[in-house]
Write a structure and sequence with these properties.
452 residues, alpha+beta, 5-stranded antiparallel sheet, 16 helices, globular, binds flavin-adenine dinucleotide
Length: 452
């Protein structure tokens, strides 16, 4: 097993810390690492796509799980797959899409691991139809603090504490997932431009009734009557008869295009990564005008539809301090809070990239799962923006007062008292941890910061 001392960050590159990184190649090596981890404990890490500090452990051990990446079994009748936790969603697509099976839920990046998807209980553009990732997990094998391995089934307290539990109940070694059947590997996509936030929310609500996948890009630089304008994208897996003749010969081919990410346009304009406010607004104007007013049935590859940010890496966009990814959700009836926050963001013109607006369906069973039935908005802000910490603290308070919550997988800065108000099952989570892991074998920068 390889071991080295490394400085680690989340995808946002804020808050680097140093840890001893182990890369176990077997379950026995993973168990030995946890048993021998010492007083600073250990935490599992996948592909490091969480924006915050949840997969870091200053002065302790980090288990890089990416060597445990085998697909162990697949049932072509039911779409059930058994795989190791370090396998990426990209690899699963390579194996299963040509057989007619797609991920039940995918986030905006396919370069995440199954362990990370369960640990953060990720959500996608189909939350209304499908819920979050863990709804499609039948069971997993969990390495716990005592060095033992338990089979954890859906519907049990340990399952609900682990899905969204940010790696703090143990190390997921393997999982059984249920995939979604598809006839082709292309998406049929509708696009609509919306004039302001109300218009966008109405279209998103209606579009989400019609299509499996729905999300919107919100221009966070526009002001006045155009505040919150944006572009709605709706998608369905294309049926075979929607494909042109040449594509029908290999309807399930997986050809991920390496797209330049939307963000990668920016460094050209902004040396150092901090986009000036006027340039950000000009770029947003350009993006908005370029989007079609209304277009239906456009065929897109899966990678272009779901994973446009999986382009070249973005450190040059982020500037020296990195990017803070802020994501919050508020329930139905709290639309005014969303409006107020979008207005504040627009006033500051600090968000150089569009935000992503989604409409969530029913909440998920995970005790620390993020989605609440209602609306979510996620956005990137340069960490070097003056006054950012105080500004985001203010947003957290508004979100908490509205009964909403911020997303833990993106977090590296929230105040512990606000978090307690956001997650009503936090007490249960802490009690289960105290019982399962009394000596604190599992710890992370996130858990220390928030007393999880
Ligand atoms: C471009 C981009 C778009 C994204 N879009 C979305 C989105 O649409 N929706 C969404 O929900 N998220 C989104 N994310 C966040 C990302 O999906 C999650 O942070 C995911 O958890 C990252 O997985 P990872 O394998 O990189 O895990 P890491 O970032 O390495 O770890 C994340 C957490 O999972 C835990 N973990 C990892 N492996 C294991 C394991 N084997 N056992 C137990 N715990 C484990 C870690 O301890 C940590 O707490 C996006 C991220 C990026 C970079």
């Amino acid at each position: 097993m390889s071991v080295d001392t490394v400085s680690l960050t989340g995808w946002g590159r804020t808050a680097p810390t140093t840890a001893l990184r182990f890369r176990p190649g077997s379950y026995e090596e993973a168990a030995a690492t946890v048993r021998g981890c010492g007083p600073r404990g250990s935490i599992a890490r996948g592909l490091g796509r969480a924006h915050g500090d949840s997969a870091q452990n200053a002065g302790g051990s980090v288990l890089d799980m990416t060597a445990l990446d085998r697909v162990l079994a697949f049932d072509a009748g039911t779409g059930e797959v058994v795989c190791e936790a370090g396998v990426s969603l990209h690899r699963l697509l390579e194996v299963l899409l040509p057989l007619g099976w797609f991920l039940p839920v995918t986030p905006g990046s396919r370069y995440i691991t199954v362990g990370g998807a369960i640990g953060s209980d990720i959500h996608g553009d189909n939350h209304r139809a499908a819920g979050s990732f863990s709804r499609h997990v039948v069971r997993f094998e969990l390495l716990t603090a005592d060095g033992g391995i338990r089979t954890v089934r859906a519907g049990t307290p340990l399952f609900d504490a682990t899905t969204g539990g940010m790696g703090l109940t143990g190390v997921i070694l393997s999982a059984t997932l249920r995939f979604h059947p598809v006839a082709t590997s292309l998406m049929s996509v509708d696009t609509e431009r919306a004039a302001d936030l109300d218009d966008l929310m109405t279209r998103l609500a209606m579009g989400g009734d019609r299509r499996r996948y729905a999300s919107a890009r919100v221009d966070l630089t526009s002001r006045g009557r155009a505040t919150g304008r944006g572009v709605l994208t709706l998608g369905e897996h294309a049926p075979l008869d929607a494909l042109p003749a040449h594509a029908r010969r290999t309807p399930l081919a997986y050809r991920p295009a390496q797209l330049p990410s939307a963000h990668s346009l920016v460094p050209v304009l902004v040396p150092g990564g901090l986009l000036g406010r006027a340039s950000a607004a000009a770029l947003a104007e350009l993006r908005h005008r370029r989007a079609p007013r209304s277009r239906t049935g456009e065929l897109r590859r899966i990678s272009a539809f779901f994973h446009p940010l999986d382009g070249p890496r973005r450190p040059s966009v982020q500037g020296r301090g990195g990017l803070v990814h802020y994501e919050f959700a508020v329930g139905h009836g709290q639309e005014e809070t969303l409006h107020r926050i979008v207005r504040q963001l627009s006033q500051r013109r600090g968000a150089p990239f569009p935000g992503v607006l989604r409409r969530f369906g029913a909440g998920d069973p995970g005790w620390l799962s993020f989605p609440v039935p209602g609306w979510s908005l996620s956005l990137d802000l340069p960490a070097a923006l003056p006054g950012l910490a105080r500004f985001l603290d203010g947003l957290d308070e508004e979100v908490a007062a509205a009964g909403g919550r911020a997303c833990l997988t993106n977090d590296s800065r929230i105040r512990p008292d606000v978090l307690t108000a956001m997650y009503p099952r936090l007490g249960d989570f802490r009690s289960l941890r105290a019982e399962l892991d009394p000596d604190g074998a599992f710890r992370s920068d996130l858990s220390r910061r928030l007393s999880l």
